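The material for today's practical consists of a large collection of protein records. There is nothing in a record beyond a sequence line and a structure line. As an example, a complete record with its sequence and its structure tokens follows:
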Amino acid sequence: MSGPADFPALATPRLRLRELQPADAPALLRIHGNAAHMRWFGSEPMRTLAEAEAVIELFAGWRRLPAPGTRWGLERRDDGTLIGTAGLFAWHRGWRKCTLGYELAPEATGQGLMGEALAAVIDWGLQHMQLHRIEAQVHPDNRPSLALLERLDFAREGLLREVAWWGGRPHDLEMWSLLAPGWGSSQGGAGGRPVQGISTDPAPR
């Protein structure tokens, strides 16, 4: 894995966004092993600790790509609990675009935590990756995720028919996107400007 100096740790009022570590595997397994909660995530539920460890190593490998991706662990500042992950991947440098992905533990939903985390992730991507476009693909039945994207100024572009396959069958996904000039417009901010008290965390744990 990359060292702390290499990883862009961030902080929001309630969260630390930091590099995932092997010790996070049990918490990740607890989240991804919940088949009902993760039914729209796009992959089969995790069953073993080894699978969780492999995913953490996969995310670490994103940082070593020529066009690096970054996946942050989302840690509560008050008690240090890992409650999910969020990240930017599939970066196309020339086109100045990438894809957004995220998941949250069941007990952490409904508190605005993922919106807080994604605002930090988006700000970082626009500023440090010089992104113009951020894409997100979401299952049409995942209403909370679609509502979250709308609150974050993403716009629905259309339906990708049977673009994904998990659970033994194909799935449609909706394509949503955020363009840099529109970021923060619904929240009184300007494109690329922080809107939720986001800062770099100088001392990630």
